[in-house]
Each structure stands twice: as structure tokens, then as C-alpha cells.
Amino acid sequence: MERIKTIETRDLKKSVAVGGCGECQTSGVANQPCESKQK
Amino acid sequence: MVHQYKLNGYNIVLDTCSGSVHVVDEVAYEIIQMFESHDKDEIVKEILAKFADRADVTEEEVYLCIEDIQTLANQGKLFTKDEYENLAIDFKNKSNVVKALCLHVAHTCNLNCSYCFASQGKYQGEHALMSFEVGKQALDFLIAHSGSRVNLEVDFFGGEPLMDWDVIKQLVAYAREQEPIHNKKFRFTLTTNGVLINDDVIDFANKEMHNVVLSLDGRKEVHDHLRKTITGEGSYDLILPKFKEFVERRGQKGYYMRGTFTHNNVDFTNDIFHMADMGFTELSMEPVVCDPSDPYALTEEDLPKLFEQYEILAKEMIRRKKAGNGFEFYHYMLDLTNGPCVYKRITGCGSGTEYMAVTPWGELFPCHQFVGDEKYSLGNIWDGVKNTEIQDEFRHCNAYARQECRDCWAKMYCSGGCAANSYHASGSIQGIYEYGCKLFKKRMECAIMMKVAENVED
After folding, report:
1. Is A17 on the interface with B (CB under 8 A)?
2. Which of B180, B233, B317, B456 has minimal CB crowding within 10 Å?
3. Beta carbons of A24 and B80 less than 8 Å apart
4. B20-24 vs B10-15, strand pairing mode
5. Nearest Cα to B259, choosing from B313, B223, B311?
């Protein structure tokens, strides 16, 4: 039986390689969408 | 680091450093709690004893569940190691761009709100309006210091910014002229108490303002108690029709009704529901931050009630969404799949470095909540940042700046919190505003629960 359901989320570890462009809106902090063209 | 909690019938497991969210049954919930401190056989023994009355909890089932958990750990979705600390310091040290300014176009106000952190708009100083020349220099300063960033942000703030409306329009026009020249894109926002809203403001703001923040505290008696006119009358009846028209003509998007709750209305969800029932769908309600001796200051005794209120709000939002009359709450808007990268999450709002406030006379401060505190003056828009010592203090504000934050499951959502709140609560921007932390964590638990509910329903 399924005891664990994983919700789809952005992998923060992977964002280390492609993040940091700084184009997202100034901040709530975790709310604003990512605006990187690299994802 | 893993955070586990139960809310609204869900057993929720958050893996802080990967951002993964899992909803699990009672058995998996208990196993995850023991996973790092017990070996497999110990876990099986304890789980079988604990769930002895459950026919579905067999030795084989428990071993299978342990395997599933180990698989998630191997995939980097559980017990993910925290390897971000150095990124936070490097990222801020490498970046010296400015991407956002809060333009204090008016250090004056046409209301006299008791809890205003800006001392009725004057910021402990004199009444002042920003001239076009100062505003233009501020925009030039922003463009010149923005490096390769394309998206730039400018907030029109006060006091009451509409008291300098003609200058705002001139500054927007100037910025639009500069966009193609410098390959920049300005996003303007406006925060207003609504008193001076008219057709001209609505038409112009709906064309040019990416977002407008409209100050309304909810129920009439709550709003009027602390948000009074200069002559001491409540302002609710004056501004409500203007806000309704503004939002309607705006197409119900790109705005927030922004309220403040205090010790006087710890049942603040009733104020949120009041606004929702009037047709406003983008809502924000913030805890007052003030001197603990103020009569409306929130108290430790209020905390359990506030936690309960946040839960009531989350459950009611789920119910209303299903019924087709949902609304958004600022702090519950989590984007789990397309949210900010790890750099953004660990470095925070950028106050004092990539975001600054500009006074009507062109002085620079780390953010709007430091304006008027001379020891935090950074410089000015003609000479740039001169007080690099203070700027370096802000450069070191991040999710790892305090021991309490390093060990906190919510650091990827709050980025170490608000420097101004820390300063006002503890006297240091590296301090802790513990009351705010408790409320923030509760809000995040509710927001994540709502996402879980949404997914489970699907």
C-alpha cells in the first residue's frame, strides 16, 4: 500500500547550478515565481 | 533537516534542503521520525509494538516502508544535507548591483494612523515631498548600478505617495523613456491609503503599476479604531468606495488589500473574510510590529489565538476555493514547482545591498523601515553608497547569519527574516525577532498544508 505521497516541488539542489540570475521580484520571500530563462 | 507536523488531518514531512514535501500515513510518519537515530530492526520492533492493533502493519510492510524512505533519501528528497551556507556569503559578496528602489516620494500623510512605523509619514523628520529632479536622479542611479539586470523595481511609497502624484507620473514617463535606451524593464508599485484615489489615479495606475497595495484593516470598527483622518474621524467610509472602484477597474488583479492586525483584533480572520465577502480577492493581513508598551501591541498570550486563526484561515480558504469563491492570502501563496532558486531563498530581500530606500531629498537607507535612523544612512543618490561598513552588515544578513536560523526548518522560506524587524525587536539586524518567527513558521505550515490538500484532492 502507498504510505508516502510526494508532492511535486522544485529541486533546490539542482537550482544551485542554474539559479542566481536575480531577475525575480524583490521580496514574500518564498512566494515570487522564478524568472530565470535557464531553468 | 526534516520537519514533520500534523495539520488538518494530514501528516506532512518537509525536507528543508531539497524543498521536497511528502504527505504520509501514520506508520511512515513514525518511521521517518526514528529513521536517523535507530537501525532497521529497532524501527521494525517499535513500529510493530506501536501499531499492534493494525492488521495492515506487518513486519514485511514496515521493512517495505523503510526501503521507500531510504529510496527517497537516495534520490535527495529526504534527509538532504545542508551545503548552502558558503553560497549565501559568496553570492552577496560577488554581487554589487542595485535592482530595486523604494522612492519615498512623500514624507507626509493625510491620515493619522496610530500604529504607523513612519510616524504619520514624517519618519521622525519634517514634512517633505520628492521633486522630479531628485526622483530622476534616483532612477538614473538605479539604472547606472543595475549591471546586467533587466528587471528593475521602483516602489512609490510614503507617507502617502499620492500627495506627490504629478511627480510620480513624470517619473514613470521618464523611466519608460529610458527602458529601450538601457535595455531595462521597470516594474512600478504603489502603496496608498486611498484617500486621494480619483479617475486619473485609477487610469494611470492601471496602465503603469505592476501592483498596488491598498491599506484596509478589515471591518469598519477595526479599521476606524486606528486609521483616522487628521481631524480624528475614521477613514473607512471615505476610502472603501474608492478601493472598490479601483480594484474593479483593475480587473481584480495586480493588487493587495493590505491590513494590519493588532492586540485589538486577534480574531483577524474575520477582517480577512470581511474583505473577501466584499469582493476583494487578493488579501494580506500583517501582525503589527511596534513597541511592546503600545496598547495595541501583540502579546505572548495572543499567540495561541493567532495560531488558531491562521489554521481557521487556511481551512476556510480551502472550503471557499472548492465552493468557487476563493481568494488569495499573501503568505499562503507558495509556488512549490516554480518558486525561487536556492540563492534567493538563502539571501533574502536584499535590503541594504540590491534594494534601498530613497528619501525625498535623495538620501539612501537600507530599506523603508530604516529611513529616519541616521546611523543607517548609506549615502545618497549622487555620490552612491559611502557607508560601506553598514552595507557590509546587511551583506552578511542571510539564512545562516544566526545560529537559531541555521537550525530552523523554515529558513528556506524566510531567508533569515526581516532585518528591520530584528533590529526593532533586539537592537541588532543580526538579532532574532522571535515572535515574528513563531508566526512565520505557523503560516508556512498552513501554506504547505494547503498545497498538500490541493495535491491530494487532485
Report:
1. no
2. B180
3. no
4. antiparallel
5. B223
B327-363 residue pLDDT tens: 999 889 888 988 989 888 888 889 999 889 999 999 9
pLDDT at A23: 87
Q: How far does A11 lie from chain B, in Å, by closest CA?
A: 6
pLDDT in tens, B7-20: 999 999 999 999 99
Chain A environment of B91 (Cβ under 8 Å): 20
Cβ atoms B381, B134 nearer than 8 A: yes
Q: Report which residue type is found at B376.
A: Y
The stretches of B129-198 forming alpha helices (DSSP H) are 132-144, 165-182
Tell me the pLDDT of chain A averaged across its residues: 80
Cα separations in angstroms, B84 against B89, B197, B306: 9, 46, 32
The owner of cell 481631524 is B231
User: How distant is the Cα of B440 from the closest Cα of chain A, in angstroms?
Assistant: 11
Q: Which of A22, A27, A33 sits opposite B149 (nearest CB)?
A: A22
CB B346 within 8 A of CB B87: yes
- The x, y and z cell numbers of residue B36, run together, are 536517523
Using CA coordinates, name the residue in chain A closest to B398: A29
Q: What is the per-residue burial (b if ≥16 Cβ within 10 Å, else e) of B415-450?
A: bbbbbbbbbbbeeebebbbebbbebbbbbbbbbbbb
Predicted confidence at residue B134, as pLDDT, reads: 98
Kind of pairing between the strands at B209-215 and B255-261: parallel
Residues of chain B contacting residue A25, judged by C-beta atoms under 8 Å apart:
151, 153, 187
pLDDT tens by residue, B17-42: 999 999 999 899 999 999 999 998 99
Which of B342, B353, B415, B445 to mutate to test binding with chain A, by most A CBs within 10 Å of its CB? B342
- The answer to whether B231 and B188 are in contact (CB under 8 A) is no
Asked if pLDDT for residue B412 goes beyond 60, the answer is yes
